[in-house]
Amino acid sequence: DYPLGFIRVRAKGKEPFIKEFLQNPPLPGGASKAEGTQWIRTLREITLDRVEMSENLFKRMAENEVFEKICIKNTDITSVPPFFFQQKHLEYLNLGCNGLKTLPKGTYDLPSVRTIDFSGNELTGAAFEGVSWSVDALEHLDLSENHIEKLFIPISHNKGRSPVLKTLNVAGNRLSGLPSAFNGVLDGLEELNISWNRFGKIVPGIVNFESVKIFLADGNELNELPGELMHWGIEECSLSHNKFTKIPDCLLQAPLLKKLNLIHNGMTVREPKPKLKWNNKSWGLKISKGNTVLPPRFFLAQLLIDLYSYTLAPIFQAIGSLFTYCCEMVY
């Protein structure tokens, strides 16, 4: 019944014509000016990147009850309007890379949402207090690159339904430990990313993620892992930039492990043999040993050794052979 049939809108940038379009979109033939203010009600998907937001735009978006995808990123919004969590048909919500500091309090029913992305904001643990999302289809939750110091997962699922959350990303926060209970919402988790936090230890028994296949914990202060990890069915594990001095025993016994990353830890490894390399920047030669550039005296010594080995030694050997041959001819 509505002449404006917009289904999908994508806008990027702070140019004046984009703001004008969002405020006063072009009207098709036969549409009145009053109808032009209601164009947003028909939208299923809206993507706004680096767009100047306004309260008027949010008010008009709140009139829409059929959103399936909302993506608003790289703006200066600091709070989330409650209507974002009142969309029964919403499947994808991405509010990453904004300036979010608070979330709307209360319990919200999101029966269709599959992805929630709040990465790259300024959320703390306090922002999740008094927040509850009732979800039945959520598979991906991204809370990375925030200021969260205490992890609280504000999701629950209806009784009798199995949890479906597959990936949880809390990398780049200020976490030092995992909570003692997740209310069963993570029992089906397949990928857990806790990289670049402040974890010094993972307490055994707190988390039972037997379904986890990918475990990423780079950039922490870990020096050991709980033995139960070998029962997770883990296939990929990344533990770079930690404090391990050896490969954890639980990983050596993990039957399905295919990929392991332990670079930049405290392990003792055999140093590589010094090699002579060409330096394009200085148009000269340098000797490098691992990641260390050796002083010039080592370069000179190596050069003399190579000069003798590849040039002088064969000459001396040939002269010696010729002298021996001449002596044999004389006698």
For the sheet with most strands, the description reads: 11 strands, parallel
Helix content: 10-25%
Poorly predicted spans: 276-294
Structural class: alpha/beta
Average the pLDDT over all residues and give the rounded result: 79
Order of strands across the biggest sheet? 1-2-3-4-6-8-10-11-12-13-14
Count of DSSP H/I helices: 5
Topology, number of strands: 17
* Element string (H = helix, E = strand): EHHEHEEEEEEEEEEEHEEEEH
| Gross geometry | elongated
Terminus-to-terminus distance: 120 Å
Protein architecture, described:
With 331 residues, the protein is α/β, with parallel strands linked by helices. It is 18% helix and 19% strand. The protein is built from 5 helices and 17 strands. An 11-stranded parallel sheet has the order 1-2-3-4-6-8-10-11-12-13-14, with no helix packed on it. The protein has a 3-stranded parallel sheet with strand order 5-7-9, with no helix packed on it. The chain is elongated. It starts with 7 loop residues before the first strand and ends with a helix.
Lay out the secondary structure:
Layout: E1 8-12, H1 16-23, H2 33-36, E2 45-49, H3 55-62, E3 69-73, E4 92-94, E5 106-110, E6 115-117, E7 131-135, E8 140-142, E9 155-156, E10 167-169, E11 191-193, E12 214-216, E13 236-238, H4 249-252, E14 259-261, E15 275-279, E16 284-289, E17 292-293, H5 296-330
Parallel strand pairs: 1-2, 2-3, 3-4, 4-6, 5-7, 6-8, 7-9, 8-10, 10-11, 11-12, 12-13, 13-14
Antiparallel strand pairs: 15-16, 16-17
